[in-house]
Amino acid sequence: MNRRNFLKVAGTAAMVLATPNLASGQPKQTRPYELNNSSIDPSESGLVKIFDSVYIFSSDLEFVLKDGQTSKTQILPVGIVIKGKDGLLLLTAEHAVDSHEKYASPDGQRRIEVASVQGTYTLTTDDGKQVRLTKLAFDPEYDLALLRVPQGANVKSFPYKLGDSNDLTIGSFLYVIGNPENIGKNTLEGIVSSKVNPDDIRFKFNTTTPPGASGGPILAIRKGPSGKGQHELVGITVAGYTGVPIGEGVQVNRIKEKFGRYF
After folding, report:
1. pLDDT tens digits, one per residue of 234-244
2. Which among 208, 213, 155, 156 is positioned nearest to 183, based on CA atoms?
3. Cβ contacts of residue 116 below 8 Å, gap of 6+?
4. pTM above 0.85, yes or no
5. Using an 8 Å Cβ cutoff, are 146 and 89 in contact?
């Protein structure tokens, strides 16, 4: 093979290996996420910083029922604060802040018909102040919601880049942060439990996600050239399965597809 043909073949191979970085628009080398957490250098772990960017907030909902009666409820979901083009945003699950019909029933269990719903969303900042979040974008199909954090609020945002859910594979190690059963922020660990199809909105992992865990971040570990582990946001937890130790999350690439114009 002469030099010209060799360079042509080598260049083609490089193009195959490089895929767009959905977070920055720059090419990157695609490689799977780690299958265990042994790649993390404890001194480099950013999990504490990520934990601090996850907030429990108050979602106060008032439902108008089909028969004209009203019903009120308060839930305490979680969301992760990310940097937007015009300020900070809170990314969470749509069902926890808008139209989950079962919250309209007095016992919180039954699903009943709802004509309309109004929500008020309040977050406590790091300096103890309560601030009102405002609706920016909701998507019931994806079960995603984006709320705007007021300017000047003392909150921490996700400190790393968004990941690439196309690089998830069966066995990819995950951290999941939520507020299970309203016991407070907690971090769980697990793995991707079924094949991730890029065309699907969601993927499954083997970590139980009880009520209150929805809206929290799903994190995977990328091993860089230095060998140090790096956490990346690969999804958001949504409503899972009752009584089954399997959770479900929306792929981060689909989040970018739906809400990317805001961040």
Report:
1. 999 987 666 67
2. 213
3. 63, 64
4. no
5. yes
